[in-house]
Write a structure and sequence with these properties.
single chain; mainly alpha; 7 helices; globular
Length: 125
């Protein structure tokens, strides 16, 4: 599960960095909701040195996120999910208050919404 979350996060970075059309990327950024922007910032903040795993954490946990990074993503994930219309009770029932499951759900929802924005932009051209 932890490896899946890490894979989702890094694939998200790849998808975001591979935007080749500057005009579409600018429009897509303008179409994101505030919780989407906050979630995006939280994902990008994982590359900051202060949020990266220490050598000891990497040795003990392998390639998983450290506790600080998980907490950053969890809070942004929870805000993003709740802003989409899912209630706290539904979120708790679906994820059992598990941080990894919450982050994974937010990743899926984020990229579905981002793809929908991209499709909408292409259909407007």
């Amino acid at each position: 599960m932890k490896n899946q979350i890490l894979t989702l996060v890094f694939s998200g970075f790849c998808m975001l960095s591979c935007a080749t059309e500057n005009l579409s990327a600018n429009n897509a950024e303008g179409m994101k909701t505030d919780p989407m922007v906050n979630f995006d910032k939280a994902m990008k903040s994982l590359t900051k040195p202060e949020n990266q795993s220490s050598p000891e954490e990497k040795t003990g946990n392998g390639a998983v996120l450290n506790e600080k990074s998980k907490q950053i993503l969890y809070l942004a994930s929870k805000e993003f999910i709740l802003s989409s219309g899912i209630t706290q009770a539904e979120l708790t029932a679906g994820t059992s208050d598990n941080r990894e499951k919450t982050i994974s759900l937010a990743n899926r929802m984020y990229f579905e919404k981002y793809q929908n924005i991209q499709k909408q932009l292409k259909s407007e051209k």
